[in-house]
Amino acid sequence: GSSCTEGILYDALRLEIGGELSSIVVLTPEADAAVLEHNPTSNIGANEQLQMRSRSNAGSERQSVSFVRFSLASIADPAALTDAKLEFESINNSCTGGCSLQLYGLDDALSGTGGNDWIENSIAYDNAPTIPGDSNAATQDLDTTNLTLLDTFNVESSGVSTNWTPEMLTFLQADMDGQVTFVIYENENGDRNVYFATKEHAT
Hints:
Layout: E1 2-5, E2 12-17, E3 23-27, E4 31-36, E5 49-55, E6 62-71, E7 81-90, E8 99-106, E9 147-155, E10 159-163, H1 166-173, E11 179-186, E12 194-197
Antiparallel strand pairs: 1-10, 2-3, 2-7, 4-6, 5-6, 5-12, 6-11, 7-10, 8-9, 8-11
C-alpha cells in the first residue's frame, strides 16, 4: 500500500525492530541512480533526481528505470524487523491524476555488478541489474526473474509517497548480505515522466 504525506526531500527507509521495546532506524540510500534506454551507456548517478518513464511509441521509445540501494549493516538481525516503510519525494512530475509504478526488490542471489553491488557512478542501462540491455529502444527491457514485486502504487506530481506492504517486510527480513536494492519501474505506457528526489537533491 502507499500514501502521500509531506516532510522529506530524499529517499528514506524507516525500519522498526520489534519486541516490547521497539526501536526505529531511519536509513538513507548509499546509492541511487536512474538508467535510460535511449542513452544506454550513459551514467547519471550524480543527478538530483531519479526518473521512471515508459513509452513505446514507434521511433521514439523511452524506458527509464531507477535503482536505490540501502545498507542494512546497522541491522543486526533483519529477521527481527517488525515494520518497514519506504519513502520517496516526488518532484517535477507530469502525474496529474496519478502515475502507476511498480516497486521491486533485487534478489540476493545475484552477485557482482549484476547484483546488489552495482556502482552508482558507473551503472547504465546496458549494465544495470535485471535489464538485458540490447541497445534497441523499441523493446521494453525489464527481466523480473531475479526481482520480487513488493508494491504497485500511484504517485502524484508532488508529495511523499510512503510504501509499506507485507511483501516488503518479508523481503527485508530475508536479507542475507546486508544490502537491499529497490528497483522502480513505471508500469503503464502513459509517456509521463515520474521523478523522485535522490540523496544528492538540495534540501
